Amino acid sequence: RYNKEWRGCRLQEFGMASAAGLAFAGTNYLGLDAAVSGGVMAASILGVGGLVWYHQTQLSRVKEDLTSIDSLSVSFQRTHARQVQDADEYVASLWQRVRGSLQSALSSAFEDGGSLPTVSASELQKLQDILDKDIPRLRRLANETQVGIAKAPSQV
């Protein structure tokens, strides 16, 4: 959402600066008085500067909104609706533990320029393999070890 807003703001600023340049060039081409050309240029500079200032304040509000606890909680509830609906205490406790760290990580990422690295499909596949294959295998191994320990004293 932040990147979309940022691109829209920059596009508007570029459009306004281009229109201002065309207006100034038009006054020169038409041979209008220097006072008129200067007025167009001054109005253009003030207009573009004001738009840049407005967009900076707008983007900082978007950043604060995206990193607020309420916004993060809404995103969590949207992405984990089934667990929230089932009142899964394990997922809720995990969320409570990582929420503050996530907020500070996002805040520092925005301070570093607002561009977060994306996850590739191969990285997602590796994580899915861990969840689907490695964790069940480790659980089976741990279960076999616990069963072996429980049987050992009775065999003695």
Describe this structure in words.
With 156 residues, this protein is mainly α. It has helices at 2-29, 34-66, 69-79, 81-85, 89-111, 121-155. Helix 1 (2-29) runs antiparallel to helix 2. The longest helix is centred in the C-terminal third of the chain and has 35 residues, at 121-155. The relative contact order is 0.07. The mean pLDDT is 81.
Question: Would you summarize the structure shown here?
Answer:
By secondary structure, the protein is mainly alpha-helical. The chain is built from six helices and no strands. The chain is elongated.
Helix content: over 70%
Strand residue content:
under 5%
| SS element count, helices | 6
Mean of residue pLDDT values: 81
Report on the biggest sheet. Answer: none
- Distance N to C terminus: 65 Å
What is the rounded Rg?
29 Å
Work out the oligomeric state of the chains in this entry: single chain
Task: Indicate the structural class.
Answer: mainly alpha
**Broad shape:** elongated
Number of E-state strands: 0
Question: What is this structure's SSE topology?
Answer:
Layout: H1 2-29, H2 34-66, H3 69-79, H4 81-85, H5 89-111, H6 121-155
Label this structure with key terms.
6 helices; 87% helix; mainly alpha; 156 residues; single chain
